[in-house]
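Q: What changes when adenosine-5'-triphosphate is included in the input?
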Amino acid sequence: MTALLEVKGLVKSYAGVHAVRDVSFAVRPGEILALIGPNGAGKSTCFNMLNGQIRPDVGSIKLAGEEIVGLPPRTVWRRGVGRTFQITATFSSMTVRENIQVALLSFHRRLWSMVGYAGASHRDEANELLALVGMQEQAERPCGELAYGDLKRLELAVALANQPRLLLMDEPTAGMAPKERVELMRLTAGIARDKDIGVLFTEHDMDVVFEHADEVMVLNRGQLVARGTPQQVRNDPHVQAIYLGDGLLYDPKHRKEAVQ
Ligand SMILES: Nc1ncnc2c1ncn2[C@@H]1O[C@H](COP(=O)(O)OP(=O)(O)OP(=O)(O)O)[C@@H](O)[C@H]1O
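A: The predicted holo structure follows.
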């Protein structure tokens, strides 16, 4: 199957800090791929390059075969790369449905006429999205009243309003209770597989990663050091040393010190 996203040889440095070094990978439609690694490994830098916020020093990023390096974030978004953030971004005084309607208006390029228009516009489409994330009963509630877990589901619906082909999710379950985390990822994975949306997510909760990812990539000091099924990655001694154990053990210099 043709790759939805094909990343080749991405490099990004900041004044001598090699944030991302020669990273290559692909995401297939409907695939749920986790990108994990210790703090400072380069995960955010990778995400920021994928959605156009940062331009790589070197490398290619193809979405459905078309190069997107150099395109501004808004154009990348229009081409179908959605992103959710650790901190939810919704309008708290608007209702749940209105938030989705605003996203739909924007997607259908009518944001300029938003004032006084969102009330009726795209209502059915918004209701469908609400049903998809199980929030029909909360449609009329102001977002400011929602529990955190519900806000995250709303954020997912807002991201889906843009009909993404690829969804980048930055620690989607941060700040949630363990049960809610599993539920949110189950919901996301179900929708993504159903609609053939590729999902790339970063996550610190290993239960979420191992339970929901089809494959896991491990980044360490800017380099991809492993990719495989959750089982393969969990059993990889290098990965255990880098990420699941003491990160210092992976660096040969530190390993020597640690062993002594
Ligand atoms: N704007 C910047 N200027 C200078 N250095 C940066 C900048 N952004 C990132 N870095 C450095 O690049 C490296 C990778 O950072 P990045 O934020 O991508 O890692 P991360 O894996 O997302 O970390 P975390 O899990 O803590 O968010 C780090 O050494 C970081 O200090």
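Observations recorded in class: Strands lie at 5-14, 17-27, 32-36, 58-63, 66-67, 81-84, 166-170, 198-202, 215-220, 223-228.
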